[in-house]
Amino acid sequence: MSTAQMPTAGQSILFGGDYNPEQWPRETWDEDMRLLKQAHVTSVTLNVFSWALLQPDDETYDFSMLDDIVETVTKAGLTIVMATSTGALPAWMSLKYPDVNRVDFHGRRHRHGGRHNACPSSPTYLKYAPKLAGLIAKRYASLSNLVCWHVSNEYGGYCYCDNCAARFREWLAARYGSVENLNEAWTTNFWGHTYHSFEEIFPPNELGDAVDENRSLLPALTLDYRRFMSDSVRNMYRVEKAAIREYDAETPVTTNFMLNFNDFDYFSWADDLDVVSWDCYPSYDTDPSEISMWHDLMRGLKSSPFMLMEQTPSRANWQPFNSLKKPGQMRAQSLQAMAHGADTIQFFQMRRSRAGCEKFHGAIIENDGGSDTRVFRETEELGSQLHQLGTQLVGSQVRAKVAIVFDWESWWGMLGSVGPSVSLNYLTEINRYYAELYRRHISVDMVRKTADLSGYSAVLAPCLYMVDDQTSENLHRYVRSGGRLLLTTMSSIANENDQCHLGGAPAPLRDIAGAWAEETDALAPEVSVPLLFTDADSAIPQVRPAAGSLLCDVLRTDTAHTVATYGGDDYYAGAPAVTENSFGEGRAFYVATMPDKIALSAIMDRFLAGSGVETCAPDVEAAPGIEVSTRFGADGTRYTFAIDLAGKGGDVTLSTPMSDLITGKRYETRIALGRFGVVILKA
Ligand code: GLA
Ligand code: ZN
Questions:
Q1: Range 309-316 average pLDDT
Q2: Hey, CA dihedral for 451, 457, 460, 464, is it positive or negative?
Q3: Quick check: is 526 catalytic?
Q4: CATH code of the region 402-608
Q5: Is the pTM of this model over 0.85?
Q6: Over the stretch 460-517, which tens digit does the pLDDT of each residue have?
Q7: Best CATH choice for the domain 620-682 from the list 1.10.260.40, 2.10.109.10, 1.10.357.10, 2.60.40.1180
Q8: For residue 534, what pLDDT is reported?
Q9: Is residue 412 lining ligand 1, measured as CB closer than 6 Å?
Q10: How many angstroms does the Cα of residue 280 sit away from the middle of ligand 1?
Q11: Please, which residues have CB within 8 angstroms of residue 458's CB and are 6 or more apart in sequence?
Q12: Which of 200, 204, 329, 342 could pair with 325 in a Cys bridge, judged by C-beta atoms 3.0 to 4.6 Å apart?
């Protein structure tokens, strides 16, 4: 892990985003430049989808239009994020070299069409994509306004072709050494799957072992295919990056990640990115805590600030209901990103497409072509404020004493499980705990399971389904030396081969938890079970309207004591539902069910009691729905963001006078935030 290399536009941050002038007559470009300058845009992302234009056949390359675009934006004084254009295949290539086209889950070889769909094992792709990236780097690396390389675009999806199958077998041979080892790791004697050579193994698609795209009869096969695809597609990025590095040793290289995305293990990818960048497209009903959580996760990938590479200024087009961002909401969401570590604010896109499937997608310059629109005015206003802010927040850090372990393998493992409940959702469970911390204005780091946890006062590992030896040691070390850990039902079910741990879940963390799940009930969607919390002072169970749902482990305690029991009239009424255990110098909580908000609040009170964890800005209070978060400059300056993301407005109360960095206004005690209002406060 290394600190991110953050591109800037000199005295300002990157503000701008995807610009696709190829789709417009040449005359439009000058007007675009005038408007973008008016909106205080400092940067454009170019060349995201131009491969077919740049390379009309095997031998010919034509950079004339890109040269013209580069010259236009350079003259306008904009910085450039240069993409490599490999996100969409040229039609001629698909026709001439079908190996570039993926074979889908149903076993069908695709023709030309779509994007983000090249086969990662295609010899043709692995020859031509890095070649193009290298030629682009050679041509543009010396531009003084080039600030970042953007490889391909939003990598996603899997391929199930014969080339991928062959490479998968090699990957398996390297991982397991022998087919006997693989048989053991995958427990292939289940339903007669014993293999006698690697040649017998095929990708888990519909023609073979799959139940659906997430699940197969041998979950370990799907799990390894996910690992293999994550590595293979990451290799597509790597070969292009290497080609760029032939000509440019310095400029940061990235590719853009996505929200709620589970195809690849972004933690492993992040090591290859000089700076993490991502595209944030919440829906109208995405809870603000989920957005903050993903920003925190993106920051967590490299423990460093990140680029907000894309967001829509107004609406998307590909969601079921593409609601507009309300007046002020785009600005509030932009500054929300910044509060969690974004050091760039970029959009898709600068000018709205006139045709193509994104013609209903929002843009800074809309179809009227001018600046007299709400969206343009809001962009211009934000641009001007960011210009005022300059780069003072760039590189500032979020300081969190609480970490949530986020794990793509656990996500895959749970997705791949047939049972115990179809309603089980890894993200929902992670967000359940994140949202409670968010509500309390507690800063959170999202960390990998092998991260150094020693700096955290509290660590939560909800549904950390897949625990290998290294993770087990890491968590033992943490708790033994005084940490406090929260585990839940579905934590530590399986090892890295998706074999259940023996010895009572959450073995091998059973000693830390001091309790184990003898059975696990899955509740029907309409059923919940009361939870009775034992008050510390009276040790008598108190009846509160707290409840659990979805899963109920029937816990047995070894050394833990009971914090809450199940109520109701099922046979496990009275059994422990939440436990606390001392282990080494530390302690562990185990939550055996999915707690509702009331239960969660009671659990969090107890879990954090005495930990020293507090709200990120103890001198700032805010009405419900207003996010409070902080970043710290290298000199220790605290920047406190108060953001109304709910669009209701409300009061922020200060116990120390502070000034708003955006307006320069000084506040003594009370700030009345309007709808989607934001202040960035400095004491
Ligand atoms: C993604 C892509 C962009 C564009 C936007 C539209 O983020 O990277 O090319 O299609 O979606 O929301
Ligand atoms: Zn393939």
A1: 98
A2: positive
A3: no
A4: 3.40.50.880
A5: yes
A6: 999 999 999 999 999 999 999 999 999 999 999 999 999 999 999 999 999 999 999 9
A7: 2.60.40.1180
A8: 82
A9: no
A10: 10
A11: 401, 402, 403, 483, 484, 485, 486, 607, 608, 611, 613
A12: 329
